[in-house]
Amino acid sequence: MTDFTLSCPIPLDQYPQILLAHGGGGKLMQQLIEKMFFPAFKTTNPSPPHDSVVVNLPTSKIAFTTDSYVIHPLFFPGGNIGSLAVNGTVNDLAMSGAKPLYLSVGFILEEGLPMETLWRVVKSLQETALTAQVQIITGDTKVVDRGKGDGIFINTAGIGIIEHNQVIAPQSVQQGDIILLSGDLGRHGIAIMAVREGLEFETTIESDCAPLAHLILEMIEAGVSVHCLRDLTRGGLASALNEIATSAGVTLKIDETVIPVREDVQGACEILGFDPLYVANEGRFVAFVPPNSVETALEIMRAHDQSSCIIGQVTGEGSGMGLVTVKSKIGASRIVDMLSGEQLPRIC
Amino acid sequence: MTDFTLSCPIPLDQYPQILLAHGGGGKLMQQLIEKMFFPAFKTTNPSPPHDSVVVNLPTSKIAFTTDSYVIHPLFFPGGNIGSLAVNGTVNDLAMSGAKPLYLSVGFILEEGLPMETLWRVVKSLQETALTAQVQIITGDTKVVDRGKGDGIFINTAGIGIIEHNQVIAPQSVQQGDIILLSGDLGRHGIAIMAVREGLEFETTIESDCAPLAHLILEMIEAGVSVHCLRDLTRGGLASALNEIATSAGVTLKIDETVIPVREDVQGACEILGFDPLYVANEGRFVAFVPPNSVETALEIMRAHDQSSCIIGQVTGEGSGMGLVTVKSKIGASRIVDMLSGEQLPRIC
């Protein structure tokens, strides 16, 4: 494993910045791969570097996903584009109940990017992969000319294996299912916004960016019947619930008064004019479980985050309409739609 | 399947260009996914849209790879960023002897991109996937602000299955292996350069961009013993051979006089000061096979491209050095190194 206390393995006096040739398929790209990427992402996989990597999976039922990350700024309280690129893709696999195993990483670097910045991101990718227990086994590097990118964009694709027989997807949602939320809302979006706008609070608001797979697998292993899962990223809780309600053709009744939002996040939302229901998260999910699985599910979720709670239920009212209704703090009930327009560009 | 004669499914009078909100996780992104991507990439996979897609593979030995595509210009004679993004990743899987099955597609779009351009690329992605017999089963869309990208960047990751017992990789290369080349060199690089520089030739030079998996699988099925394969992209033939020579610790002796280069490509290389050995290709590969497999291999390769030929051999001389020596047209022998510096930025 890489010693992360080491400094950048590319000599910074010689190559202080990324050049176009670092993506050109020649000597400089080879140096970057062999000196920086291979040692950092060294895995137990015996397959040597090649155009594609060969692995033997323990099962043949898999989940597959991809996400690109274009977050601005690259570093923020609680994470950076590297930790986000691992956790985001790991979490998408976890939402199918898969055990994440392997990631690919594709870099699109802008000419002139400080080499030291790339190294910090690479270290974070690997540290986060270690925590999430996934291996980065294949990758690609492209460099675009100055002014045609923005520092670093990262794509990760992931493969996970499914070792149970549950179908965790919107079509498994049933009337009477209880909707659980895994923690407080809005920290990722507000953390990014605070950095961008130079907002200062009494304490720094940190992103909730975190891997969720182990929590999900713990629930499945404990016998929780999981009908559907969705992590709350762009568009926030409101958009995620609307997607599921539409796919499943059901109505979801949510109680806004129980949804945990930290006081500083709530305050920032009021200043910025945001509704926490629409603000992005990177370490939160909703789970749809039948009533007899709620107790076990909540117990496990609360061991990870004690603010996990029941936020609502699936009802038969307005069946097939795909509605989400929210009982607000003043007792009134309103329909909550998907995010309309753009709230926070480049949040992930 | 999509009817590709149809016009763009997003109303162009309403949304002539990509907006930031098309990547925001809300209604516009949903419209783009449901009206454009789902119908175009409709597959036989029964799994509904979710954070990750679940598939059952016929075997558990797989190949996995990723590439990002930042080619400029987006459209060129013989292809575009969409066909390239399918063929490039399919070919990387094929180089491990895998049968490509599934692709992910991640778009990074620049605000202001004409919607019609995106639609043309999406159609090409799907048409090329049909030809290459792979399914695009998961994806992601991000939008960056104007001036922070360059129209369209695409990442594809791919999964293929390996249904044979050959280890097709540099470590299988042996002394005495014959090196075969699957066609003429340099067309992709020169096609791109001609468009960028506004060069005009008597006939248009078209990129060699093409899927290679079926040709490779045909060779394996015919009993050809394939020791190593490498497709010739950035850095060209010279860089690919150097990578293999270094990994395998062998010397490769190449005969430049037999390497097929079309006359117009050779002429363009002379004008531009390029060596065809270093120019990028997108539908060419080298195969390392033992002498008793040469006849069958060449027969199959020539049925696809009659300019396929033997270009050299693996020797024991200078063992462990990773050298590539080339006998030139004037009879002298020289060492050919990896590409140094950057020849053609953003060629793929």
Automatic annotation (TrEMBL), chains A, B:
This protein's source sits in the domain of life called Bacteria
Identify the residues that the record assigns to the PurM-like C-terminal domain, covering every copy: 174-319
Which GO terms fall under biological process for this protein? protein maturation
> Which SUPFAM superfamilies does this chain map to?
PurM C-terminal domain-like (SSF56042), PurM N-terminal domain-like (SSF55326)
Q: Domain named PurM-like N-terminal: which ranges? A: 50-162
Q: Which InterPro entries match?
A: HypE, PurM-like_C_dom, PurM-like_C_sf, PurM-like_N, PurM-like_N_sf
What family does the entry list? Belongs to the HypE family.
Q: What is this protein called?
A: Hydrogenase expression/formation protein HypE
What is the scientific name of the source organism?
Answer: Aphanothece sacrum FPU1
Phylogenetic lineage: Bacteria, Bacillati, Cyanobacteriota, Cyanophyceae, Oscillatoriophycideae
